[in-house]
Sequence to fold (419 residues):
Amino acid sequence: MSNLTITRPKFTDYQTKILGSEKRFTITEASTKCGKTFSHLFWLFEEAHKGKKGYEYWWVAPVYSQAEIAFKRLYRKVAESQVYIINLSKLSITTPIGTVISFKSADNPSNLYGENVHAFVFDEYSRAKEDAWFALRTTITYTKAKGKFIGNVVAKNWAYDLARRAERGADPDFEYFKVNAYQAVDAGILSLQEVDQAKKDLPARIFEMLYMANFAELGIVFKSSWFRYFTQEELHSQEIFNGDLAIWNFVGDTAYDNKEINDPSAFIAYSHYRNNLYIADVARVYMQMPELIRFTKDFVTRNKYTVHSSVKIEPKASGKSLVQMLKKETGLNVMEGKAPTKDKRTRAEMCVPFVESGRVYLLEGAGWVNMFIDEVCTFPNSQHDDIVDCFTMTMSENYVKEPEYFLPSTKKEEDDDEY
Fold:
């Protein structure tokens, strides 16, 4: 041990404060990729070199594969020294002084009952079972071990409640910390461009939780203040100035029954012009075939349909039948829209960055505007959501990506940053 030198890396200000806390426990709700794993691995490693032979130091993760990732990161750091004993099957590292750093899964809380544990890190604790914390707390009762909790905000669960207690100062043994993505940007860990892009790509609620470390309720998605208004005269002046014309397209979301107690059919006439979305007409109707065919043809005709226009109908309910009959009986460029792969709320949330940026224009003074605002700005609590479906369809293929995100998730990238 006399020949072994451990050099503490240069930590950010927030990492230093968390690791240096004098409280027995710390809880950190943090952005993804802000350096929480690296800093806490070092803390546990450092603690293990302060103990006595036989003392155990645990890294606890929600599932085995996640514990294995943290184990491999530390293993790669110490392997070259050739003074540590590595047990690949047990995911443990024995230090030169005989202390043991073990990487545990919280998937089966019964495996967390043990003895002689003198410090722990509970990684991604907010994604683990509460029983795992109960088992861990029981295990450290005799040794009075210190511990650190790190994770994202994922739900109002036991972990969220524990963090709120720590934040209020309700327990003198706990200290609370929060790290958002922009703090990590200021510290040089994350790229501002990457964080801003994630904000555009992800639903607002997901970004708020995984990057800003704030819980976001499943509340109203769109705000009326985000919408702007235009007149046809103003748009025409832009067309003259720019030397091109807005092309008007159409989307429809249909229902079978013509009774108002059931879902209506909805249609929107819109144009993507100069990176903005203009909505010229919105309709909600209760119709069956063949009346719905006549209505659709009239709706697109009065809203500047041309040979360059498209009419997309969501492929559900009577939508498939409407597409087939319109193709047969009219010369409209009609087709089935892309079948949605996400639920209604997620599709709406993915449109938030575009709408919030003030790039959606509604026709000023149109009779349908109040109906549109009432439904869109009270979703998901609105009586109907057919107009919302059409509204998200107008953006889905032009401005909205469908990133893969998982909430909650226990999978973590192995090539995590080294901060």
